[in-house]
Each structure stands twice: as C-alpha cells, then as structure tokens.
Specification:
This protein is α/β, with parallel strands linked by helices. The protein has a single domain, classed as Alpha-Beta Barrel (TIM Barrel), CATH 3.20.20. The protein is 31% helix and 17% strand. Strand 2, helix 2 and strand 3 form a beta-alpha-beta unit. The chain is globular.
C-alpha cells in the first residue's frame, strides 16, 4: 500500500506556549516505536510519497524521527520527500545529523522542506535569530509566510483568537471527513498518525478533538487497519 502524504505526530511536547496554537496545551507525550511499527506493518505500507513530522515541536523528539527512518529502511519502505515545521527555537548537532539522515534517505527531495514559523506569536515566545540563521543554511529551509490573525485556525487556543476577532464563522473551522470507501479516495487527504495510535484524515485538529474525529486506532481489535475501516464503512 502506498501513502501519498503521511503525517506522524512524534511528540506533544513544546518549548513555546503560542496563543494561537491549534493543538491546545502541550502534553508530555512522545510517540513510541511500536506505534509507528504497527501502523506501517499492519497496513503493509510500501511507499510514502511525503512524510511530515509534526508535534508539538518535532525537534524535541529527534529520536523518533531517526527511528522512523530506520523502521522504513528495515521494512524496505521508500520515502519520496519530507516536510517539517519548526518553531525556530531548537538547534543542535543532533538536529543537523537527523536532517541529513532524512534528506539522504528520501529519493525525491524536489519538494522536501524545513519550514520555520515566522509570525508575531512565535516571536513573542522567544525565537532566537542565531538558531534561525543556522537552520537556514540547509538548502531545503525556508521561512513560513507571516500569519495574519484572520488566518488563525479555530482549533485549540486559536478558537479564542477567532472569537475575539470575529473570524470564528470563516473557513478556519476544521471539519474532518470520515466517510471513505477506499484508499484511493482517502489518499486525497493527509493521513495523520498521532502519539496514541489514532489514525485521522485531518492534520489540523486540536489534541482534544483528535480522539473524537479518528478513523480508527491501530490497537482496536475491531478496527485497526485501513482494510478493516473500509469494510466497516461498507456496512
């Protein structure tokens, strides 16, 4: 089975408390290797066109990013490209080594990207220009566009900003789709794997809503794979 866009939530920890954060309050949770392994093996994944590592702040759990690459290598799962958004507050030799390892493993890095958040919300939380300058040395790094309050997603802490600014009724409210009949239809969406093993078709949900909107959980014996999910949807 090939996946067009897989988003892996490697951590719910964060070293910032941005007032617009769509996730909500940070949690002291990291994804476990057995969660990633079970997802990949039980669904018989053979290729991932783009893998996104997210959080939280993904650079706070570089170990799981490295382990995911190793899992894919051991399972002979190819990866085309990657995407990571970081808050620009973390840099180390481990970051450097992890990014080079990820870049080297991907076989089509035309669109691989490390995005640095670039807005007043992250700036207020103590972004360091020296760290940003180091991250910008990667050829695949760029600054995200400035985020206007009108475009803040109404999830997590972002709900309060949307309500205060009267944008709550705009298209920033996320609606998750659950009614998929086959993988071809589902693959038009981002497949999201969170730290708890929940699989979703939407990447921009708060931690609170993720458990409510999941397609299935990989540890649920009644529905733990895409194949079982599609069969259940046929009923």
């Amino acid at each position: 089975m090939e996946i067009y866009n897989l988003c892996v939530e490697v951590t719910r920890r964060c070293n910032m408390q941005c007032e617009h954060c769509l996730r909500g309050d940070a949690q002291n949770k990291d994804i476990k290797d057995y969660v990633m392994s079970k997802f990949l093996t039980s669904n018989k994944i053979t290729y991932i066109s783009t893998v996104t590592f997210t959080g939280g702040e993904p650079f706070l759990n570089l170990e799981s990013i490295n382990n995911f690459i190793d899992l894919c290598k051991n399972l002979d799962i190819g990866i085309g490209s990657f995407y990571i958004a970081t808050n620009g507050k973390t840099y180390s030799n481990e970051v450097l080594n992890t990014m080079l390892k990820l870049y080297s493993y991907c076989d089509d890095n035309e669109i691989s990207q490390l995005h640095i958040s670039n807005d007043i919300y992250h700036s207020n939380e103590g972004q360091e220009q020296e760290i940003i300058n180091k991250l910008m040395l990667f050829r695949f790094t760029s600054l995200k566009d400035e985020l206007d309050y009108k475009h803040v997603i109404a999830e997590g802490r972002g709900v309060e900003i949307a309500e205060l600014n009267g944008t709550i009724d705009n298209a920033r409210i996320i609606k998750a789709e659950k009614n998929f009949k086959d993988f071809e239809e589902l693959n038009e969406y981002t497949i999201y794997l969170n730290v708890d093993g929940d699989v979703l078709s939407e990447c921009d949900l708060s931690y609170e809503r993720q458990s409510e909107e999941k397609l299935f959980n990989i540890f649920n014996p009644k529905c733990c794979t895409f194949e079982m999910f599609f069969k259940n949807n046929e009923k």
